[in-house]
Specification:
Elements lengths: L1 H19 L7 E5 L2 E5 L1 H57 L2 H10 L7 H14 L3 H12 L5 H14 L3 H14 L4 H14 L2 H13 L5 H34 L2 H4 L2 H13 L3 H14 L3 H6 L9 H13 L4 H13 L3 H14 L3 H13 L3 H18 L1
Antiparallel strand pairs: 1-2
Helix pairs in contact: 1-2, 2-3, 2-4, 3-4, 4-5, 6-7, 6-8, 7-8, 8-9, 9-10, 10-12, 12-13, 15-16, 16-17, 17-18, 18-19
């Protein structure tokens, strides 16, 4: 538009000047090397205007040709990109439907034309893994890693796939890399929880729990359960490495609140018993039971191998007097009477425990106790009840 206005202005100016100097065309001489060109001023003006018009026309034609070429190229590029997006969307649906082979085919067919090839290769890696082809999975992850800004997405996909396939060492190595740059990523934290638990990295899991709770990935109840499990696992590791002395030293360094957990007291006691430190185990259990009774601790008492069982019997007799409806205390006391061959007392407490809850082990003990008293018919009846209970659990 500006060029047309310019031409009209120049043409108008030429017409005006031409009318003013009509009959006085003037003279123009152009000399170049050995050549000369002669013309009137009017001819020169017409020539200049024609030349400008020709240049403008040539510019228009060139631009039109270039625009047509670019438009054609863009049309085919956009068409390919749209097709790639469509195939990728269909591939994701097939992945969700479990059609791994078709999903892989669709997302990789036009991946080079997709505006985000990273997505195509990550979906393809999932499809390859679904087919059990780990080599192809790794190939697609390698292609994905070559895309821009792909590190986090690729490493998270690799870690999730490793966890799913129970490749715990691979998962741990990948998560350790992510942990340095993305310590608060919720997916990284969740995967670390599973990996540490499966690998028995108990101290690492204990250190991770506050972050998991802060990120609202676990509630307080799950945090306590995981902490007890990790602490129990750590006690076992220390006991196997440092023996009962190292185990006791570690226990004494724990927070008072932690040592008050009856579950952990039971774990600690079992590790002591396994290393012939039964007297120390009994001391810990006794002190805990004085503060609060707990079925798991009563179950541990019959496992003790003590030279003098009288203190344990006294403890249990006192417990069943105060809380006669505690089946585990009744059972534990009955087992000590059984060892001492006090058959009537053992029978009475086994029967009391079984009246409160059924238990296969107590039925077996009771049957033996009755046999020792020559009560074969009653022993057979108890044995049948035990078999019935076993069948019902299968």
């Amino acid at each position: 538009m500006i060029r047309l206005i310019f031409l009209f202005v120049v043409l108008g100016a030429g017409l005006f000047v031409g009318t003013q100097f009509s009959g006085q065309q003037g003279y123009v001489l152009i000399s170049i090397a050995n050549k000369t060109i002669e013309m009137s001023v009017t001819t020169l003006v017409v020539f200049v205007i024609a030349a400008l018009a020709g240049l403008f026309l040539l510019e228009y034609i060139i631009k039109k040709v270039l625009y047509t070429s670019v438009t054609t190229f863009n049309y085919f590029s956009v068409r390919k990109m749209r097709r790639s997006r469509r195939y990728t969307n269909e591939g994701i649906i097939k992945l969700l439907e479990g059609d791994w082979k078709l999903a892989e085919k669709k997302v990789t067919r036009w991946a080079n034309y997709h505006d985000m090839p990273l997505l195509c290769y990550l979906v393809a890696s999932e499809a390859a893994l679904g087919q059990g082809d780990k080599a192809k999975r790794d190939h697609y992850l390698e292609l994905a890693s070559k895309q821009e800004n792909s590190e986090l997405a690729v490493q998270l996909t690799r870690a999730k796939q490793a966890v799913r396939e129970e490749e715990w060492e691979v998962a741990a190595s990948t998560l350790e890399t992510l942990k340095a740059e993305h310590p608060n990523n919720s997916i990284v934290l969740s995967l670390q929880k599973t990996t540490y638990r499966e690998l028995g990295e108990w101290q690492a899991l204990i250190d991770l729990l506050p972050k998991l709770h802060k990120a609202k990935l676990i509630d307080e109840q799950e945090q306590n359960e995981l902490n007890e499990r990790a602490q129990c696992g750590l006690l076992e590791d220390i006991a196997s490495q440092q023996g009962s002395e190292g185990l006791i030293n570690h226990w004494n360094k724990l927070l008072r609140k932690t040592r008050q957990s009856t579950h952990l007291v039971g774990c600690f006691s079992k590790q002591l018993i396994a290393r012939k430190a039964d007297a120390e185990a009994f001391t810990v259990i006794k002190e805990t039971l004085k503060k609060q009774g707990h079925d798991d601790l009563y179950k541990v008492l019959p496992e003790l191998n003590l030279a003098d069982t009288h203190p344990v019997v006294v403890l249990l007799e006192d417990a069943v007097k105060k809380q006669p409806d505690t089946p585990e205390a009744q059972s534990a006391l009955a087992q000590f009477y059984f060892r001492a061959e006090k058959w009537p007392e053992a029978q009475r407490h086994f029967e009391r425990a079984l009246s409160l809850r059924p238990d296969v082990s107590d039925y077996a003990y009771l049957a033996d106790t009755l046999e020792k008293q020559n009560l074969s018919k009653a022993a057979s009846e108890v044995s049948r009840k035990a078999l019935t209970l076993i069948d019902s659990k299968q």
